[in-house]
Every structure is written in C-alpha cells, then in structure tokens.
Amino acid sequence: MAVISRGFTGRGGEANPELPPGQYLTADFPVLSAGPTPHIATADWQFSIRTDADTLQTWSWDELHALPIENIDTDIHCVTRWSKLGTSWRGVSLDTLFATVETTDAYVMAHSYGGYTTNVPLADLLGGKAWIALEFDGVNLDPEHGGPARLLIPHLYFWKSAKWIRGLEMQSTDEPGFWEQNGYNMYGDPWLEQRYW
Q1: What are the residue ranges of helices labelled H in the chain?
Q2: Residue-wise pLDDT tens digits, 113-167
Q3: What's the rounded Cα separation, in Å, for the pair 190 and 82?
Q4: How many helices (H) and strands (E) would you count in the chain?
Q5: Strand-pair category, 46-50 with 165-171
Q6: Residue 152, domain CATH
Q7: Would you state the pLDDT for residue 1?
Q8: Do the domain assignments include residue 23?
Q9: Which of 113, 117, 146, 159 could potentially form a cystine with 150 if both were Cys, beta carbons 3.0 to 4.6 Å apart?
Q10: How many other CB atoms sit within 10 Å of the CB of residue 8?
Q11: CA-to-CA distance for 98 and 159, rounded, in angstroms?
C-alpha cells in the first residue's frame, strides 16, 4: 500500500532545461512509501553488507558516525516526475564501507527496515556515486524521508535511494527488488527516462 503526502500529485513548476526529460521542478520534498513508516531508534539501528562468501560486516550507529562523513550537494529525481535541484545531504560514502569488503559479485540488493528492497549494480554504489545519508538540509533525516539513515544514489531515480536502509546483500545476478517486481525499470536512469519496463 502506498502512502502519499502533500506535493506528490501536483505539477509544481515550469519545465527546466536542466531537468531530465519528463520531469518538473518542485520546491517541496514529496513522500512516497511502499508501506507504513518504520521508526527505528538509533540505539537499535545497524547497517550490514553480506558478501557472496556469506561473510557479514556490520556497523552500529556510533560506528558509522566514527567514519568520515561527507557533504553531498546534488539534484534528485523521482520516477513520479518531480525533481529537486541543489539538495544538501551529509553521509558516509559507500566507497568507505566497501574498502574492507571482498566480493566477486557485480550486483547488490538493498534491504530496508520494513521489508523494502531495491536492486543496484555494485558499480553504481562506488566511485563517489552513493552514500548512507544521515542528514538532509543540516538536520537529521526525518523518518518520513528515510531516517535515521537512507541510501542516496542521486544519479538514479529516487526509488533506488532506499529509505530506512539496514543492509546490502551481494548478488551474482541482477534480481528485481520491490518496485522492479511491480513494473519499474531494473536500472532507473532519469536522463534516459527508464521509468518502467
């Protein structure tokens, strides 16, 4: 069941040549979720990466905050056609987390608290392309926007930036996640308008 909030359904602005095709500019931060919003206490939150060798590396909230935290200024684009330019985030780069992870697999399934999943090629998480985001606009992430932590992959449609992230599982093949099983594109490049199958 989808939960839709203010700003999700309207066309809030004029076309902008800086936007991917079919997108409109919004000043809001619309919310679409595949179910109820989980509320996870930071004392209970944990992030993990499971490899093809079935090894598991985990980070607590405090351990994640002990790693280098970066400022990320980026545009974000939702498959429902809104775009928000110049957003400001803070988070830990996936390059930092994968620095000690050994894997031969090329794909990842992201898992969220609440059961949501989405698939991403590993190459799209590395090279300064993705983060575990902890803050938006200078404050801790609200639960409705994926707090306490969400995946942030701004070069793909925003459904790939899984809210309430709890872990990544390495995979040898590109298996579909929640929205991908329900007709969304397997990759989701906004500049190629890869919205649906």
Answers
A1: 61-65, 94-98, 178-181
A2: 999 999 999 999 999 999 999 999 999 999 999 999 999 999 999 999 999 999 9
A3: 11
A4: 3, 13
A5: parallel
A6: 3.90.420.10
A7: 32
A8: yes
A9: 146
A10: 16
A11: 22
